[in-house]
Amino acid sequence: MTIKEIAKLCGVSRGTVDRVLNNRGKVKPDTEALILQTIERLGYTKNIAGRALTVRRSAPTIGVIHSGRGNPFFADVVAGIRQAERELTDYGVTVELRELEGYDAQAQLTAIDELASHVSALVLHPINEPDIQGRVDRLLDEGIPTVTLNSDLEHCKRVCYVGSDYYTGGTTAAAIMNICTRGAAKLSVVAGVDTVLGHRQRLLGALDYLREHAPGIQIVGRVSAQDDAGLAYGRARELLDQHPETDTVFVVAAGVAEVCRAVIDAGRVRQARVFAFDNVPSTVEMMRRGLVEVVICQQPFRQGYEAVRAAFDTILLGQPKGERIIMENQIRILQNIYEK
Amino acid sequence: MTIKEIAKLCGVSRGTVDRVLNNRGKVKPDTEALILQTIERLGYTKNIAGRALTVRRSAPTIGVIHSGRGNPFFADVVAGIRQAERELTDYGVTVELRELEGYDAQAQLTAIDELASHVSALVLHPINEPDIQGRVDRLLDEGIPTVTLNSDLEHCKRVCYVGSDYYTGGTTAAAIMNICTRGAAKLSVVAGVDTVLGHRQRLLGALDYLREHAPGIQIVGRVSAQDDAGLAYGRARELLDQHPETDTVFVVAAGVAEVCRAVIDAGRVRQARVFAFDNVPSTVEMMRRGLVEVVICQQPFRQGYEAVRAAFDTILLGQPKGERIIMENQIRILQNIYEK
DNA sequence: TTGTATGCGTTATCAA
DNA sequence: TTGATAACGCATACAA
Questions:
Q1: Do A47 and B172 touch (CB under 8 A)?
Q2: Per-residue pLDDT tens for A58-95?
Q3: Residue of B207, B321, B335 to mutate, interface with A, max A Cβ within 10 Å
Q4: Quick check: B332 and B287 in contact, CB under 8 A?
Q5: Helices B105-116 and B130-141: angle between axes, nearest 10 degrees
């Protein structure tokens, strides 16, 4: 089914069909109804090959905003973004990247405003606040669809979320702890930020699993490092001092290497094992040193890659492949961490 | 850079540039040299968007042959193949699938001959024999590129291999055994087929790892089930009878559920744990029953998907993204096995 | 040996 | 309100 065929069947020209398809107005209601009905009946969808050629002419820009500047996890995300950009050069696509530092909603709004003037779609690692939610809805009204990246945005009309399933990440981490400790451990938890949805869900998943499946794992201590590597060392030292029986540490967010350093400095290397998320270089180094045996990963490279592709699919066809593109949680040990 | 621009710069027509690009001959050597030089200098590559439109007109067929009919692992591979086919319908692509049973080189040659008459590219799960190797080379001479799937084909001009890194799969499995057994085990091995490269490499990887990193894991027994679920039960029973000290079983190829059944019937459920590859349904069932804790997976769905895409990329642009597309080995427990 | 015309499917522009 | 036409980049049939 092509526009041409639809046009012939309806006894109109391609231009008229095009006006109906893209809601440009200026079509007699009768004609429009006929065309819509024919389209419905024959199941017309835009052809990617043809569409690609015209999209190319418009040389669309995809804007990307994230709040992880300086964060090695986001270095991988950006590598995926760049890979997607390279693959899309033939389609005339350019990626414009804004890397912010820290979670400042106002700064994010400013970045959105800057990009909104000229991008065809937005990839956003969002701060989950009402101002941002409203802005994303307005963007869509202006014809700019938003894909959320790594973390979702509630109560708004983003077209797609690309990221991981944090709750399952938590259960997977807990199950691995259960296996590696043979079901018996004195566990101390270094939590993340309570207002960051992903951190909370991870912890929830882990606690749910432990309650249901690991009666022999006892939680002896808990502290938060606020997703801040700078805070992690001190908090972990306190934790280890206050709970000397600790033999297992579960790190929910950033600061894994710092927690490991605290374990080393506390002279507990052979006693306490660390379980954590993401294979960032400093964590891998601790894996080499034997402090961390297993990490749970959420495929940062693919997150960046798929988010840009989803944005492009939306430009190309009006919608992404799915409303949620979820990365599987990967269990990694030194043997299946592949260097790029 | 487009053909048009190249043509203008060289003072010739688009047709002439096209003849040079596609080696159709009938071009004066001087003109050809000039054009080739200009292309080289300006780094021309065919545009995907334009190419897609003409490829569509030729409605190419991609042939797929595998020898895993009835094998649940290949059911996932085929699901990936179908997914790729769906995504490529807009490009006019059809997939023609031949599912064979067992490793019969002659049957594979027949299937290749049938497809060779009308396909534009071939995806082949090959039997690694000289006859097949020679046939693949001749296919390329006829203009039909071959992508090998799941298992590679040596000494031939296949354009791309899509599959897993079996050696690393073996080291990963061994490392997981080491972690889960805390470095102490009496291990019995149920090997695969020695002439199947992947099985041999897996075992090699595992043995290398154990020798270097796991002095406390002692190999007490070894048998082969020939990648045949029908044989696995009996072989495993013998193994368990002959080596009653066995507390860990490592299954290299097919027959995981049958080995588990042997463990059950031998009354050794709480004593012996099973480590294996691939999350096929019968294995997952044994995970639910607690006999298998961890499996190493090689992403069958993605293998099928990526193989078809690689074949299409070759049709579209003359070559795939890379000469080897390697799936990562995934460590899976019940918590991160996602049902589709 | 080379150039020109036509078509693929979609969209923008201009004329009616 | 609608139709005709040109354009994107590539490929090919045909004319020169």
A1: no
A2: 999 999 999 999 999 999 999 999 999 999 999 999 99
A3: B335
A4: no
A5: 10
